[in-house]
Amino acid sequence: MPLIADRVYDNGLTVLDTEANALYICNAEPATYTAATTTNALGAAAGGAFTGIGAPAAGSPNGRQVTVNAITAGSVTGTGTASHYAIVDTVISRLLAAGALSTTQLVTSGNTFTLGSFTIRIPAAV
Questions:
Q1: Do the beta carbons of residue 42 and residue 27 sit within 8 Å?
Q2: What are 15-52's pLDDT values in tens digits?
Q3: What is the pLDDT of residues 75-123, one digit of tens each?
Q4: CA atoms within 13 A on the CB side of 76
Q5: Around 75, how many Cα atoms within 13 Å sit in the side-chain half-sphere?
Q6: Is residue 85 packed enough to be buried (19+ CB in 10 Å), middle (13-18) or exposed (0-12)?
Q7: Would you give the distance in Å from CA 122 to the centre of its chain?
Q8: How big is the CA angle at 9 (ends 8 and 15), to the nearest 5 degrees?
Q9: 101 and 42 in contact (C-beta within 8 Å)?
Q10: CA–CA separation, 75 and 88 (whole Å)
Q11: Is the model's pTM score more than 0.85?
């Protein structure tokens, strides 16, 4: 069984903690920055609406994880069903992470959206 030190996991997760500055809700899982911010985007939380991501910590049940802080006032810019999130670095135009929302949300342009906090985990090597 390989051993991978926490430092290795943490350096990968630290990118989320230090570079992410916006979270988008999307109608499908984006594979690129453009898809996350334009093609599939239904809304975004940036600036004060995106309060960031915590530092790497022990994951459950194993590995390492970061916690994405709750979103309380994201701006909806499109109408549709939000099924995925995308975390991006808008300074370098880079998609950092994307995944499914725990539940889908019907959203309407001009409204706001909320998301509870959630974790992104890298499981331990087995």
A1: yes
A2: 999 999 999 999 999 999 999 999 999 999 998 899 99
A3: 999 999 999 999 999 999 999 999 999 999 999 999 999 999 999 999 9
A4: 18
A5: 10
A6: buried
A7: 14
A8: 100
A9: no
A10: 16
A11: yes
